């Protein structure tokens, strides 16, 4: 874990999530495509994500340290992420975003980032699931903010490096239109949350950074 200074944008996002009437854990995503590793620029996508059914069951198991009859996830933790190209299609120049569902267990079309990473367990797609801590961070922040409110806040920073996907050559590009967070144990991973957005094209010298906020 890594401690960081909470900036004003972070507070605004957590306030928005805290005021939402949606029950249970909630998430918010900001995605950036940039070439300067020290400057993110303006997000090309910002909005809520869906914490899928397995993610909600995982949260309940961790709270009570009790496994269900169907799954045993009490020893898992959120450590990984992945990206895919199945989050949207384009018709006559207009993107049509796919709606994530509670039944989602993996990315619609996973992208292999590097052979150094694990397979996505739901599809056996190789090299898809990347540890957040490879070049990102997971931060837990103070729970109390504002009068009469108390909630736990977490922020993940997920980074697809300029060298990834490793299959990209100079001048090549990869369409990316979805991302997911995973809770993992060893090489087994299960989707926690899923986001889809309008297609963006990542080149071999660009960086994709996803800031993933969760409030409980």
Molecular structure report:
A hairpin with a 4-residue loop joins strand 7 and strand 8. The N terminus is likely disordered. The chain has one domain. With 216 residues, it is mainly β. A six-stranded antiparallel sheet has the order 3-12-11-4-8-7. The chain has a five-stranded antiparallel sheet with strand order 2-1-13-10-9, covered by helices on one side. A two-stranded antiparallel ribbon has the order 5-6.
How would you concisely characterize the structure shown here?
The chain is mainly β. The protein is built from two helices and 13 strands, in the order H-E-E-E-H-E-E-E-E-E-E-E-E-E-E. The protein is globular.
Task: Supply database-style keywords.
216 residues, mainly beta, six-stranded antiparallel β-sheet, five-stranded antiparallel β-sheet, 2 helices, disordered N terminus
Strand and helix map with partners:
Blueprint: H1 8-19, E1 26-34, E2 45-48, E3 50-51, H2 53-64, E4 77-84, E5 88-91, E6 94-97, E7 118-120, E8 125-131, E9 137-141, E10 153-160, E11 173-185, E12 188-203, E13 207-215
Antiparallel strand pairs: 1-2, 1-13, 3-12, 4-8, 4-11, 5-6, 7-8, 9-10, 10-13, 11-12
């Amino acid at each position: 874990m890594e401690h960081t200074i909470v900036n004003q944008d972070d507070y605004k996002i957590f306030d928005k999530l805290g005021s939402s009437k949606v029950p249970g854990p909630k998430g918010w995503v900001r995605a950036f495509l940039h070439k300067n590793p020290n400057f993110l620029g303006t997000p090309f996508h910002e909005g809520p994500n869906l914490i899928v059914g397995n993610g909600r069951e995982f949260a309940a198991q961790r709270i009570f340290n009790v496994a269900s009859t169907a799954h045993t996830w009490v020893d898992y933790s959120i450590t990984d992420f992945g990206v895919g190209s199945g989050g949207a299609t384009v018709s006559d120049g207009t993107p049509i975003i796919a709606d994530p569902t509670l039944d989602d267990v993996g990315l619609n079309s996973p992208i292999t980032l590097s052979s150094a990473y694990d397979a996505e367990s739901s599809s056996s797609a190789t090299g898809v699931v990347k540890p957040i801590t490879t070049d990102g961070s997971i931060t837990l922040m103070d729970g109390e903010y504002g009068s009469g409110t108390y909630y736990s806040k977490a922020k993940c920073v997920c980074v697809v490096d300029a060298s990834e996907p490793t299959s990209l050559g100079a001048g090549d590009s990869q369409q990316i239109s979805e991302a997911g967070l995973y809770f993992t144990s060893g090489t087994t991973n299960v989707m926690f949350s899923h986001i889809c957005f309008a297609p963006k094209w990542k080149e071999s010298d660009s960086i994709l950074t996803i800031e993933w906020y969760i409030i409980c």
